[in-house]
Structure formats: C-alpha cells, structure tokens
Write a structure and sequence with these properties.
There is one protein chain. The protein is of the alpha+beta class. Helices cover about 25% and strands about 35% of the residues. It has 3 helices and 11 strands. It has a 5-stranded antiparallel sheet with strand order 4-5-6-7-11, with no helix packed on it. A hairpin with a 3-residue loop joins strand 2 (about 50-55) and strand 3 (about 60). It is globular and about 45 Å long.
Amino acid sequence: MHSLSPKGLAVVDELAERHDFSHDAIAHMVSAVADGNGQMAMFSHPEFGGPGQWMHGGMLMLSDPVNHALKARVDALCHEIGEILVRQPGRLVAVENTAWWPAELGTPDATGEQNGLRYAYFAQARRLVVQTDNIIRVYDTLDHRIGGLAQQQGSRSRFTVTSQHGEVDLGSLPVISTGRQPPS
C-alpha cells in the first residue's frame, strides 16, 4: 500500500465528506486505485463489504453482490480517485521504492495485493509477476491483456486472470521463471 502525500491526505478529507466513508476506508481505496494506476483496484475493507475488485469501465465485484447501493457508492469513489490519479499523477501518493518484482521489467502497469497474494502486470513486456508467500513466479501473458486477477478461496485456492478472452486459469499461462524472495 502507498503512503499518502500531504495533498493526498487533503483529498482523502474531501472524498470522505462527499462519499460518506471513513478516512481509513478512503485512504485504503486511494492506495488500491493508485496500485492499479487509476484503472483498477483490488481492495479489502469492512466498509466496502470486505474484499473486492474494481476496473475502470464498469466492472465491480464486492463480497455482497446484491448490495446495489454500496456498489454504486464504491464505483463512484473509485472513478473519482482514478480521475484524480490520471489528471494529476503523483498528487495523492508519496513516492516509494517498493519494487519486489524483477527490476528488468521496469514499472508495472498495475499492481495489487490481497489475501497474501500480490501481483505486478507489465502489459508491454507481456509479463505477470505473482508472489504468494515468498515464491515469485513470472508468467508469460501471451496475447492476453490482463484486466484483473481473482482468488477462489477454499480447500484448493485457485487464481484466475481476466482478459479480453474472458477468465483464464493462471496455471494455464507459461511460467518464465520462479524464485524466492527473502521474508521481510
């Protein structure tokens, strides 16, 4: 998660007043949308009904899919944060150096973290880096333009990505490399 800049903290105050969520919830969402470069977010906060995922363009998944009022509020919040990030990059978050992926991939188009899994997506390089526990795997995304990553919980966790071709099991993508990251 990103640290908020002083301007970011002021924006959180404004957004909290307009969207009727707590400062903590707004700061959490700002960080999640910033991780997705203003285009997507993976989040988990009680005020948003627990874990969820948002993508610019209309996709929003909440743990309570029939709570339409909450979905509308969360969607409006995410869109506004995304617009601020696109119009004024760097306004909300403090600069951090938290790269955990291979340096040669550069800057990701999107990052996210949820339930012990984190990912970084590099569209031009056609790579998706996923870390679970301290294992890092680099996947070739082939011709998929990744728009989201989801975890299915249960006795056998399953990871899927969403692309222009629909839902794709992460295990079906070629693994380019596997490595270990020292625990932090």
